[in-house]
């Protein structure tokens, strides 16, 4: 099973690095969102301080969904999804391979998003780079777990670009709430210790949706 | 007679209120080469998807070596080789990378050497490192055949495998299929190009209005009667 997961992960990374268009689109979109926020909101330092955690995670969600929607598109292009489903591997391995591929690129995006966010919206964020990156790993895991499941579910559906966010965003509300609160705590200098309850919620969200998505992926991929 | 490799028992498939397959039943034994004929929309591709385990039937069951495919899909997936309308390869990977990826999913030992050998056998060794998206449909099919060679299946489900193949490639593919059947493998093929595979076929089944209308053994048909069956089925 691990061999199959790694093979799918390696294949997805190779394809993504070879084209890079998906990643470039995600980053470009993130920059645009940050610019819109910085132009739309009053250039008041207190205002930006209060809004910074929300702006950061909204930017992540909106640009991250671009990556999610493309995750299964490359399997559909020449009928590869069928070949993958007919391979003698568990559907759970397919889910984990695809989920990890998405996660790697989301983390790469977040690692670049933090300095960009500091540059374009909230300069005080940069000293907290490693704390924010640590939080990003936990948030991105939940996002990619649920997102990969729903992306697989909507691959064959008409208007999938619209349907995916409609299904995904309401379910992500606990993740968004917890991430915003923890990030606000980090920016306020309280670190993770000051936001343990929110951190538990975030980790719980990750575990529930990672396990549930792994177990239900088989049914989701039924035609 | 030996136990069937694949047994289709009363398979029904509904899409909403429309019944596409009506109690389809037949067996496929090792060494069988069955042609499944029928007009467009008769339900041939749907039946193939159900046989692969990609789609659940509304009722009825498919057994592989006596075990239900929906309850135990792993045994079928291990033994199955499939060719569909689509190339089922990643356009941005090279031919070699594609085969190595599918070899690693099948846990094939000494995969790299076997990939090189398969590519040479299908005549793609010179374009082994070229991205598959630049291939012609015939080259896609050859790559598909190389995938089959690597997988060493016991059951082949083929949906229009001759589309895009030139005369030489048809000969090569038929040679592969002939040897496959001789070694005890079973083939179920959907095709409209009867002249390509007539010599190999040992059985013909005609799917008409969602059910197997008739089945003929090799002794019961020659090329002319096969064409008659086909014309009747596709009228």
Automatic annotation (TrEMBL), chain A:
InterPro entries: Cyt_c_biogenesis_CcmB, Cyt_c_CcmB_bac. Pfam families: CcmB. GO terms for biological process: cytochrome c biosynthetic process; cytochrome complex assembly. Its main location: membrane. It is a multi-pass membrane protein. The keyword Transmembrane helix applies. GO terms for molecular function: heme transmembrane transporter activity. The chain crosses the membrane at residues 20-42, 54-74, 95-122, 128-150, 162-186, 198-217. It is found in: Cell inner membrane. The keyword NAD does not apply. One of its GO terms (cellular component) is plasma membrane. Belongs to the CcmB/CycW/HelB family. Required for the export of heme to the periplasm for the biogenesis of c-type cytochromes. This is Heme exporter protein B. It comes from Candidatus Lambdaproteobacteria bacterium RIFOXYD2_FULL_56_26. The lineage of its organism: Bacteria, Pseudomonadati, Pseudomonadota, Candidatus Lambdaproteobacteria.
From TrEMBL, chain B:
SUPFAM superfamilies: P-loop containing nucleoside triphosphate hydrolases. The keyword ATP-binding applies. InterPro entries: AAA+_ATPase, ABC_transporter-like_ATP-bd, ABC_transporter-like_CS, ABC_Transporter_VariousFunc, ABC_transptr_haem_export_CcmA, P-loop_NTPase. It holds the Pfam family ABC_tran. The keyword Transport applies. GO terms for biological process: cytochrome complex assembly. This is Heme ABC exporter, ATP-binding protein CcmA. It comes from Candidatus Lambdaproteobacteria bacterium RIFOXYD2_FULL_56_26.
């Amino acid at each position: 099973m691990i061999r199959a997961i790694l093979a799918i992960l390696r294949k997805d990374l190779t394809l993504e690095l070879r084209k890079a268009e998906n990643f470039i689109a995600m980053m470009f979109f993130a920059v645009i969102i940050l610019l819109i926020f910085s132009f739309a909101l009053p250039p008041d330092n207190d205002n930006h301080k209060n809004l910074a955690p929300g702006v950061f995670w909204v930017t992540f969600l909106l640009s991250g969904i671009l990556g999610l929607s493309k995750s299964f598109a490359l399997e559909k292009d020449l009928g590869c999804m069928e070949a993958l489903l007919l391979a003698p591997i568990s559907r759970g391995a397919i889910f984990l391979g695809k989920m990890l591929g998405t996660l790697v690129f989301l983390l790469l995006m977040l690692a670049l998003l933090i300095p960009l966010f500091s540059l374009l919206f909230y300069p005080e964020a940069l000293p907290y780079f490693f704390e924010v990156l640590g939080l990003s790993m936990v948030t991105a895991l939940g996002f990619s777990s649920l997102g990969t499941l729903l992306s697989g579910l909507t691959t064959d559906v008409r208007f999938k670009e619209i349907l995916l966010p409609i299904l995904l965003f309401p379910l992500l509300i606990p993740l968004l709430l917890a991430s915003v609160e923890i990030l606000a705590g980090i920016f306020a200098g309280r670190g993770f210790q000051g936001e343990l309850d929110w951190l538990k919620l975030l980790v719980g969200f990750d575990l529930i949706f990672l396990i549930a998505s792994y177990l239900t992926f088989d049914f989701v991929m039924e035609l | 007679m030996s136990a069937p490799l694949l047994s289709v028992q009363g398979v029904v498939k509904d899409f909403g209120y429309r019944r596409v397959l009506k109690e389809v039943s037949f067996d496929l034994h090792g060494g069988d080469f069955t042609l499944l004929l029928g007009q467009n929309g008769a339900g041939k591709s749907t039946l193939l998807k159900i046989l692969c385990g990609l789609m659940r039937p509304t009722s009825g069951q498919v057994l592989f070596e006596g075990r239900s495919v929906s309850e135990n899909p792993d045994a079928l997936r291990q033994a199955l080789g499939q060719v569909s309308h689509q190339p089922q390869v990643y356009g941005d990977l090279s031919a070699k990378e594609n085969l190595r990826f599918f070899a690693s999913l099948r846990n094939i030992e000494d995969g790299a050497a076997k990939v090189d050998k398969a590519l040479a056998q299908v005549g793609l060794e010179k374009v082994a490192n070229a991205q598959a998206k630049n291939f012609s449909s015939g080259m896609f099919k050859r790559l598909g055949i190389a995938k089959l060679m690597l997988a060493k299946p016991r059951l082949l489900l083929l949906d229009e495998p001759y589309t895009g193949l030139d005369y030489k490639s048809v000969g090569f593919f038929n040679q592969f299929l002939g040897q496959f059947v001789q070694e005890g493998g079973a083939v179920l093929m959907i095709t409209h190009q009867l002249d390509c595979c007539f010599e190999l076929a040992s059985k013909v089944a005609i799917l008409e209005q969602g059910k197997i209308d008739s089945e003929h053994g090799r002794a019961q048909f020659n090329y002319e009667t096969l064409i008659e069956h086909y014309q009747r089925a596709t009228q």
